[in-house]
Specification:
The chain is mainly β. The chain folds into two domains: 326 residues, Neuraminidase (6 Propeller); 94 residues, no CATH class. It is built from three helices and 37 strands. The strands form nine sheets. A six-stranded mixed sheet has the order 1-31-30-29-28-24, with no helix packed on it. A five-stranded mixed sheet has the order 6-10-9-8-7. It is globular and about 55 Å long. It starts with 16 loop residues before the first strand and ends with a strand.
Amino acid sequence: QVQPGPGPTAAPFEPPLRLQPYDHENAVRGYRPAAALDNQPYFDRAGRAFVRTATGLAIGSPAGWTQVSLNEATIERIPAFSEPITGVPSTKVAFDADDDVYLLATAGRQLLLLHSADHGQSFRAYVIPGRTDRPRGLDFEQFSGNNVPVGPPPLVRNTQVPTEPDPKLFWRRVNELDLFLPRKANGRLELGEPIRVSDVSLGLSGHSGMPSAVVSRGDKVHVIWGEATPPEEKVPGVPTRVVTYDRTTARLGEPALIGYGPPANDIHNTPSITMDMDGFLHALTGTHGQPFHYARSRIANDSGGGWTAPEPTGAGLSQTYVGLVCGPDGTLHLVYRLSQRGVEPFPLAYQSTLTYQRKRPGQPWEPPRPLVVPAFSEYCVYYHRLTIDHTGTLYLSFDYWSTHWFYRNDQRTRPRTVLTSSDGGDSWRFWQG
């Protein structure tokens, strides 16, 4: 029976959202919004929504959504190259103070930074120099609550260093970590020379959480990373470091060790950094099934002036995949996968929920609040990404993946779901776009 009127997803719901076998929320709850659901949404200062797609970009406005093909919209390739723009090394979308749009892409084995000065209607593609014979990863500064680069977003590149394979160190990678500081010049971008940050970066795990590796304010650029350690070295986890580059003096400061993310040598343990309205830096170590550790800089807009002692976000929590943003009031918002045993609805097994926590200024971390409960017990992942717009509204994009294949294969497509909160995480609803 067809019932007219708003669907079940039009009103706020009381978390957690309980997934059911075969009852995908998109179909059963009537969640078919006008918004693009390919990936997580990002917003410029004018409130326009941007979602990275497999072929380009979806742009939302009050008039509706438009699709932009990067191959058709790219008006110049610098230097010239012939390969089609096909790869998506990151689904992030970045902006500068002029609301110019920036994307990361690949063409063949070349890494690209794309720049649009007309809100995503046309792009220039810039080849990021580096070795094409090694695996590489990219990240750049995206809006995480209180940071808007004056010019193009700072960019970090991980280049994997060949190492002897060791089955006991399956999640260990060693990378050279470089920082690029692009700038505008005569209507074009100049990428500048790479600045070496670390020779032993673990790299970036971004499929879930989508952590932030870079945040900046003014001429200060802050980079966070986890380091690989010698296998024989006994350490409590992945060393997590932050360093500040000062564009005024062209000087890279001394890296600050802010904590360890257990276990050691695990690429899952990618940390994340953000800043509040006063410029203080807030960082979380990544972990794989253990509590995240939180630290704050003692000096605003400077990683070299000391940090608070690292503290867990909760005792005994089995946390993985940091998703972190900071609201305009300084509240930290955190979403992650939380694994538990012996709790409902699977008291005889283990399960993993998509879970939310927050930390108000000057207050401890609040207890975990599950937002999504899985359809099945055992292993799952949510491919979650947490973003925030300039009003402080939160957006949580996820796609539940269960180890039970029959749940994954009962539909041809797997559209993502986006939950949103406009009251600082108190209530949640389905994003309609």
